[in-house]
Amino acid sequence: MIEISVDPSACNGCGLCVKDCPMRVYELRGDVSVPVRPENCMGCLSCHEICPAQALEHRGVYPSKRHYVDLRVCEMLNRVI
Ligand code: SF4
Ligand code: SF4
Hints:
Radius of gyration: 13 Å
Number of domains: 1
Helix content: 25-40%
Mean pLDDT: 89
Structural class: alpha+beta
Largest sheet: 2 strands, antiparallel
Oligomer: single chain
CATH class: Alpha Beta
Distance between the termini: 37 Å
CATH topology: Alpha-Beta Plaits
Bound molecules: iron/sulfur cluster
């Protein structure tokens, strides 16, 4: 099972992870993002990469699941190139 933690002292409440997560895992509570639906996480790590404060940590994500992110990046690059 994937465990998500947010460092509240690092999170600046920008909301990027809330908008980016395709599984609607996060909600903003005040100025801090909270993983309110962690069971929905599929481990793409998109939020981890987009967070400007490096406030997000995921445990239990296996390397094979990173391919989802890598494939998305490749698809984006193929459209640009
Ligand atoms: S992207 Fe990072 S800094 Fe922004 S709300 Fe999410 S956890 Fe906080
Ligand atoms: S790893 Fe992917 S699915 Fe999980 S919380 Fe982050 S953006 Fe959402």
